[in-house]
Amino acid sequence: MKKYLLTLGCCIFALGMSAQTPEGDEQLYDMSAYLYTNSSVYYATGIAEHIVFSNDGSSVYFSSLFPTALDNLWNVGKVDGKTITISKDDVCCKYDINGDGTQVYNLKVGELVFDESGISGVKDIVFNLDGNHIYLEDDATGPCRYLALYDTDDGKIALWYYSLCNDYKPFTGVLTTIPESAEKQDAVYTYDSDSSIPGLVAVLGNDVYFDHLNSIPGVVKGTHDGDKVTIPAGQYIGCDTGYFLYLNGGYTTGEDIEVCDIVFNITDTGLELDESQCQLTLTTTTDGSYYSTCNNVKVACEIQSGIPVILSSHVPASWYDLFGRRLTQPTRGIMIHNGKKTIK
What we know:
Largest sheet: 8 strands, antiparallel, barrel
Radius of gyration: 26 Å
Helix content: under 10%
Strand order of the largest sheet: 1-2-3-4-5-9-10-12
Structural class: mainly beta
Distance between the termini: 52 Å
């Protein structure tokens, strides 16, 4: 799977909205687009976008129409059937070039117009609306169209950044929570850089829950079996730096990443990441096809806690037949249970 660098979004993306949220039905969307900066184009996905549909159905508001901008303002689009139109005169965001308020630009956003010589100007943005799907293409399979941030200087357009193929789909991720009845244990996560952070591990039956694994507030769920705890890949753990993030195991080689489950070995003092199986990797998709370079891959991880004692107390009772074969559940007849013959 191809690794696409999302350094741009990590460095300057801000999801914070500087204007009051409009009234209406607010929904969380997953945005993807090709982002242009520094003469390079990056494909970014898993970008968090708040979109509000007005109560009367006439307008759609975008919280951060251009994801690489700071201090985003709400942009309003007018709904007409299956299209949403945003005026090219609508201010998208403010850009403080010096960071001290001495040189602030009010940037507008518009759709680029081309002629034989290249970019000739901007026009109103027209998004396609198909149910809850919003996209910037001529049609569902047609060529992409371009958005650009710009300001005006003596009637001439100075372009700042642009994106293309913007696509918005409703976000469907669900956060895992720790059940109230689970037995909880404070923990310390230590990584390959010798950095340590506090965490929490909880156990309920064979289920093991980890909070703040890989330094991100969010819970993932694993399964205890024998001397190992396995965490399935692709679990959503929350939003950070404006991206939806998923915890995966994986190896990175060059520009490729192979996703796998995360496996911890149970030790006398806690848990230790089985590096022969996987590393910890934060991605912006469930399958790990894109991940953000602003979140370091964790090569090694030890979890220090009293978790082995808790796990041993949660080992389910073992049932065997008279031939020594383990049973998934007790059946009628004579069985071996906890080393003793039992008749059911």
